[in-house]
Amino acid sequence: MKKGLILEGGAMRGMFTAGIIDVMMENGIDYDGAIGVSAGAAFGCNYKSKQIGRVIRYNMKYCNDRRYSGIGSLIKTGNIYNTDFAYGEVPLKYDVFDFDTYQSNPMDFYVVCTDIETGKAVYHNYGGKDDHCFDWIRASASMPIVSQIVEIDGQKLLDGGIADSIPVKYFEKIGYDKNVVVLTQPEHYQKKKNSLMPLLRVKYRKYPKLVEAMEKRHLVYNQTLAYIEEQEKQGKLFVIRPKEKLQIGKVEKNPDKLKEIYDIGRETAASQISEIKEFLNTYI
């Protein structure tokens, strides 16, 4: 039996995920592998580095810092989250990411990106500092329009959520058969077609396969949700989701709002921790 943790993205709805993973780490829950998409990758990697509280700490501290994110960064660099500061100075200098623990932890951590030339998902087992430093994490979290394309070893990459927002079937395919899924939308949520498609078609007209993937993203997403709900009913997946829609901006500048969503995640995990442990065959 291989135990897996699957983390959906959702920009700063990921503060909910941060609260979930901190409580699971505090309760000694280990996984054989985890996979994160977009914010799920950016925040979930802290599970493998075992850094409880790091996600909420650095986001609250820097969310209002112009060096970290905002329109100024977007105009200047083409990235709403500043690459040099958010993926360089913060994790390497100010709130240091523990690469030593990450690399010594036997848990595998996968990130999902979208290859813009094929429109297909790229699943990468992220090795740490010598594996292009944070470029794989950055690529997974590079939202269309507000982020530059990230190129790694000749592949041009953007947000993994375009091609595979909730990679349950991929994790099952590679042998993870006891999976906990963290969603950032409430039960019965259905994704609608992206209202920005006219702009996306123009901006990415050189990449028709990417545009095609964006056109059908909502359909693929909703099909995945239906599969998850069926597997959940059969007891084959354990799903953690917020009870209500999380009211938070994609690039949230209010640290109190970040903390509010983080605390909702903590409360949600704490209320289900015994069930999670039972599902994974680990006990209090």
From TrEMBL:
Positions annotated as active site in the UniProt record: 38 (nucleophile), 159 (proton acceptor)
Alphabetically ordered keywords of this record: Hydrolase, Lipid degradation, Lipid metabolism
GO molecular function, one term: hydrolase activity
CDD domains with a match to the protein in the record: Pat_hypo_Ecoli_yjju_like
Domain called PNPLA: residue spans: 5-172
Pfam family, one: Patatin
Extent of motif DGA/G: 159-161
Membrane-crossing residue ranges in chain numbering: none
Stretches assigned to coiled coil: none
InterPro entries listed in its UniProt record: Acyl_Trfase/lysoPLipase (IPR016035), DUF6363 (IPR045943), NTE (IPR050301), PNPLA_dom (IPR002641), YjjU-like (IPR037483)
Keyword Hydrolase: yes
Biological-process GO terms, alphabetical: lipid catabolic process
Presence of keyword Hydrolase: yes
Domain of life: Bacteria
Motif (GXSXG): 36-40
Protein name listed in UniProt: Patatin family protein
Source organism phylogeny: Bacteria, Bacillati, Bacillota, Clostridia, Lachnospirales
